[in-house]
Amino acid sequence: MESKPKTKFWKGFWVGILTAAILALVGAFGFIKLGEALVKKRLKAPEVPVTMKEEFDFKYTTLQGEEKHVADLKGKVVFVNFWGTWCIPCVAEMPTVQKLYDHFKNDTSIVFVIASRLDSPEKINAFAKKHGYTLPFYTIRDEDIPASMKFNQYPATFIYGKDGNIAMKHINGADWSDTSVVHFIEGLAAM
Predict the structure, then answer these.
(1) Is the pLDDT score of 90 beyond 60?
(2) 26, 158, 166, 44: which is closest to 93 by C-alpha?
(3) How many domains does the chain have?
(4) pTM of the model
């Protein structure tokens, strides 16, 4: 008869541990989603500069492994976003980047380079599929980002003019679908 209370105890103990683990996972997921929602609420349009002249080239890779250089896109307006699936502000702003891309996707004078750090092509594809994103995603290695473009904070976004110079840079999340950004890019494309 003594074994039944011990068995009941261990059974209850393991049910309690399992319940606590499940609650901890649900709580962690909820905390991340809450953080993402709070960041989304605070997203604002980035400050659009009057003038800026900086020229930078870097290497990035397609999800199929093809190496590319941003300098090869000279003559086009280029929207570059360094991000990661692990970055809450990056994930929070991504729907606005998709809206901006959707606005310009048929304009061949405007190119988007959405380059992830620290994510594998498989992880990026899974993320895009899960959220229904059709953005042109790429990968980039830290050593391929010019020192002058490293801010150790993400997302980091740069918009190049047709002359190959950086016309705008913004660090942290933003509402990229704001009309001020659309007009800024349209102005660069018209130059």
Answers:
(1) yes
(2) 44
(3) 2
(4) 0.72
